[in-house]
Amino acid sequence: MAPPLHERAHAPAPVALDALHGPWPLHDVAASRASEAAALAGAAPHRLMEAAGLGVARLALARFAPLGRVEILAGPGNNGGDGFVAARHLHAAGLGVRVRWIGDEARVPADARVALQRAREAGVAIEPWGAGTPHDRPELVVDALLGLGTRRAPEGAIAAAIDAICAAAADGRAVLAVDLPSGLDSDTGQPLGERCVRADATLALLTLKPGLFTGRGRDHAGQVWFDDLGAGATPPTAWLSGAPGAAWLRGADHAAHKGSQGDVVVIGGAPGMVGAAWLAARAALAAGAGRVYTSLLDADASRFDSARPELMSRPGWWRLAPSTMSTATVVCGCGGGEQVREALPAVLAQVPRLVLDADGLNAVAAELALQELLRTRAARGLATLLTPHPLEAARLLGTLATRVQANRLAAASALAERYRASVVLKGSGSVIASAAAVPAVNPTGNAALATAGTGDVLAGWAGGLWARRPHASAHEIAAVATWQHGRAADRQRLAGRQGPLRAGDLVEALAAGG
Fold first, then answer.
1. Rounded distance, CA 143 to CA 183, Å?
2. How far apart are CA 444 and CA 446, in angstroms?
3. Given the DSSP bridges, would you call strands 140-144 and 174-178 parallel, antiparallel or unpaired?
4. Do the bridges between strand 223-227 and strand 15-16 make them parallel or antiparallel, or are there none, so unpaired?
5. Which CATH superfamily hosts domain 257-513?
């Protein structure tokens, strides 16, 4: 009799990824292929596929128990081979397992052919796709159709199988994806066509793929688990950010005073958009900046925030002497409208730490002279963090938002390289990029942030952190601020609160847990 699954050890069992751990290395298709080749070169025949299938079976029992019936949809390649191995182990564990296979036995890869034969010898029911009838409501459907490197939209039998998985999910059946949800681009996190599996959980094998964590990948992958199969990997092409270190959570030294905690100036708040500047200023204050000033662009707006009287007003701050501008951290553009254009030449030329957001970004995108000022800041020893959403990023790159979203890592890296700045490309799986640095993907946050003003809060929070830690790099500030910003929304979900996290409440949530 075969030993229980938990006793069949090739390596540690799959682990669940969450936002509190990491950082985790991410590997694109090329790097994953290199890691796979290195692992295969040093492994016994069929070991890697055996390890992968065992990991799938372990996770199926651990994550989706109790189970009675399992249906595995296996594709023509090695992803299908992983499914055959998983089927064999689940069958040995006493489950009712059926594999519906799309493939040609004459063309199946060598390892998958061995896995197929072993599954048959073990008594697993394996049927060609389209033969017989589906299981009577299996508790779990396993997607082992398409694996790494798929670059075209699913069609034919594969597309029909994806439709069947989606129909099972709509009927309340659990779905586990092997390595990737079929139909999802592993590098970009975008569906390759109209059909893409939406899983409850995905077990990434050998390497973690960037597409599981950005774009639409988070929605399609569900909860991501990882099994490195006991093998090493090549250097990563990106990182999945982890929780900030303890140094970011500690309070100031006892001897600290407001002057030692840094100054933030928020420039924004054109007519009709003053609230954006106040939100950024409140966030900077909550992040721990010693003094926060607002330089509102609406001359008729009140210069006093009754909810936060600690905030001070400095109209036309950018007209002050360069010696004054050379000491502050500036957040520019929140609700800036067309009026922010007046402030930008001096701000770009003088301030040592600049968070450029919203209409500040739009103004730069529209004027070549401002673009040149931005590009030359790094050479003059001035640090910049850009915080665009996809449409703002598209304007800065002279392209369309759909193209930015089609490859978010590439777009963020292109922005960082073009403007010699650090970048947070906001969205699901925000991307942090800097020139000549390995990009990072942020794992925190959810749709609770999809409401007006939360981007202003992020810009202000980053400015406040930077004022406290003026020697930190813009890349580090971006990673920490984005992680904490998203985590505040995650805490709301964990507490059972649904709906949007309003921007004013987000500031307080950050102050309570940042």
1. 11
2. 7
3. parallel
4. antiparallel
5. Ribokinase (3.40.1190.20)
pLDDT for position 3: 53
CA separation for the pair 50, 44 (Å, rounded) = 10
> For residue range 6-20, what is the model confidence (pLDDT) as tens digits?
444 444 578 888 766
CA distance 276 to 335: 5
Superfamily of domain 5-240 in the CATH hierarchy: YjeF N-terminal domain (3.40.50.10260)
Per-position DSSP letters for 242-295, written without gaps between them? -PPPGGGTS---TT--GGGG-EEEEEE--TT-HHHHHHHHHHHHHTT-SEEEEE
pTM above 0.85?
A: yes
Q: pLDDT (tens digit, 9 = 90+) per residue, 370-391?
A: 999 999 999 999 999 999 999 9
Identify whether the C-beta of residue 329 lies closer than 8 Å to the C-beta of residue 353: yes
Domain range annotation of the chain: 5-240, 257-513
pLDDT of the residue at 514: 57
N-term to C-term CA, the chain: 53
Written as six digits, the tokens of 379 are 């050479």
